[in-house]
Amino acid sequence: MRSDQVKKGLDKAPSRSLLRASGVTSEDMDKPFIGIANSWNEVVPGHVHLNKLVDEVKRGIVEAGGVPFVFGVPAVCDGIAMGHSGMRYSLPSRETIADCVEIMDNAHMFDGWVGITNCDKVTPGMLMAAGRLNIPAIMVTGGAMEAGSSNGRQLDLQDVFEALGEHAAGKRTEAEVLRVECAACPGEGSCSGLFTANTMACLTEAMGMSLVGCATSLAISKRKREIARASGRRIVELVRDHIAPRDIVTKGSLLNAIKVDMAIGGSTNTALHLPAIAHEFGIDIDLRAFDKISREVKHITSIRPSGPYHIADLDRAGGIPAVLKRLQGQLSNEGTVSGHKLLDIAEAAIIYDEEVVRPVSRPFHEQGGIAVLYGNLAPEGSVVKQAAVSERMMYFTGRARVFDSEGKAIEAIVARRIVKGDVVVIRYEGPQGGPGMAEMLSPTSLISGMGLSDDVALITDGRFSGATRGPCIGHVSPEAYAGGPIAAVREGDRITIDIPGRKLHLDVTDQEIEAQGSQAGRAPGHRDTRQIPQAGRQRGPRGCDGAIGRDHPRAPEGRKKRVPNDLQAAAQCWAHGNLFIRYGVTSRSRADRSARKIA
């Protein structure tokens, strides 16, 4: 066993002594050591209950003859981090989480590990770690909360954000906003719609890295606890059978996940996370795969924000196995951590609600949930959740209203300076220019709440929340900070959006774009991005390929170490865990000294 490196032989007496101090017995020394990466905390509603699932996983590991070891990883609540500088830490936390798992699993030579996860960056971060480490692993996603309710109407977090837009438009009182606030999120679990957390849970099951039913079983359900316990037993079996993540996740598995993503109408953030996960598995997946599959796979569910249903409804209809059953003819027969082939799971599935999970002959939309747009405004691509766009906005031409930050755009929207026919352009919010590629639910929800989602479009080199609906086009690449064409857009320029034609076009000449772009590529005056290393600007992460840190996972031989000026800048810039740990800078003072030398 891998763990023999810390527990076998006379020379390991010191490490065994320390293990005994942690409660390990002599009998345990012959058993598999299983790490449990636990993202529990008392901040994020999707994580407050995870210790209960950890207890079940531990029981399952012990029952199967293993020894569990629990360690923590961070988790950001995007809803709480939204709309202020804290959101710049969210996407970079994905790499930090992967690093945390790698550090703990490799430093202590665990034979396998279980990821107890939920929410937007934690699940992809743990899946990235699974591909990177390639030791037996299994994911237990924490599950969604029930939908809220007020006056007989179901509610979720999206309703709270949109209530603010309705208030700004004079349609709701402050007291009415408070009533929505208090009712929308009734308890433990990830937000109840098909936002990023639940989308990633569904794709984790589709790619074979969690047990059947895990994705949609609710946070507080007895079934979720049973799945957690079964996952504990199963990880020990995976260790004994020497089945590692790269034995399960293939390119076919990842393409299956994209197909499920298109069928359920998942978050556009999957266009960032799946390429990053694929990268760690040594597989190439890019926006072209999303575009191709979106034209082939029909949208057969309609879950919030694109429709009326919630995750609980999908679970009652049969969950991801029901979706797999609908897609049988389009999926490849890959393995799963359960030991069953994907198409066997699909064949055995039962569809309990023909309206929630429709047949492909009667879809909600003829194409998949996400569309990839190209054009002179996005030469390297951009993404939109087309399943959440009304028919009248699938083709739209409007006047550019240009803002160099999310905050400036919000000010204009609240002041009601955005009117019908406008295209709100929010730039310098990409992975490098932001820095950190902040998620923007506030401007999209304000627009929707004010009743303008069928009359106003939004475009950004940043990204949008999984709760976003309407013609909101994100991940525009190249980003403004890198001198992309979005930096050349001027107030009043005409922009054409053609979602069926997959086009995003700025109605000016190439010469004008080039002339304007020559003045771009630097931070706007209100934001200081000098903390970003110059090398990071040249080889920084790009939204079109998953916002993957370009120097990850190893610095080539002979490359000069480069670090941000301080720890805060590192977190704001990109995954300080990668920059410090991988390049050998292990303390703040040493980081400062190195930064001064480089400068």
Structure in a nutshell:
The protein is α/β, with parallel strands linked by helices. It has 24 helices and 16 strands.
Span between termini: 46 Å
Class based on secondary structure composition and strand pairing = alpha/beta
Shape: globular
Order of strands, main sheet, comes to: 7-8-14-12-10-9-15-16
Radius of gyration: 24 Å
Low-confidence stretches: 529-539, 550-599
Total strands: the figure is 16
Proportion of residues in helical segments: 25-40%
Q: Major sheet, described briefly? A: 8 strands, mixed
Provide the β-strand percentage band.
Answer: 5-15%
Query: If you average the pLDDT, what whole number results?
Result: 88
Number of helices: 24
Describe this structure in words.
This protein has an eight-stranded mixed sheet with strand order 7-8-14-12-10-9-15-16. A four-stranded parallel sheet has the order 2-1-3-4, sandwiched between helices. It has helices spanning 4-7, 13-21, 50-63, 78-81, 92-107, 122-133, 157-168, 174-184, 196-206, 222-240, 245-248, 251-264, 270-280, 287-296, 311-317, 319-326, 342-348, 406-414, 442-449, 510-517, 534-538, 567-573, 576-582, 588-598, and strands at residues 33-38, 67-72, 112-117, 137-141, 148-150, 153-155, 371-375, 378-384, 395-403, 422-426, 439-440, 457-460, 463-464, 472-477, 494-498, 503-506. The radius of gyration is 24 Å and the shape is globular. 60% of the residues are buried. Residues 529-539 and 550-599 have low confidence and may be disordered. It is α/β, with parallel strands linked by helices and 599 residues long. It is 38% helix and 13% strand.
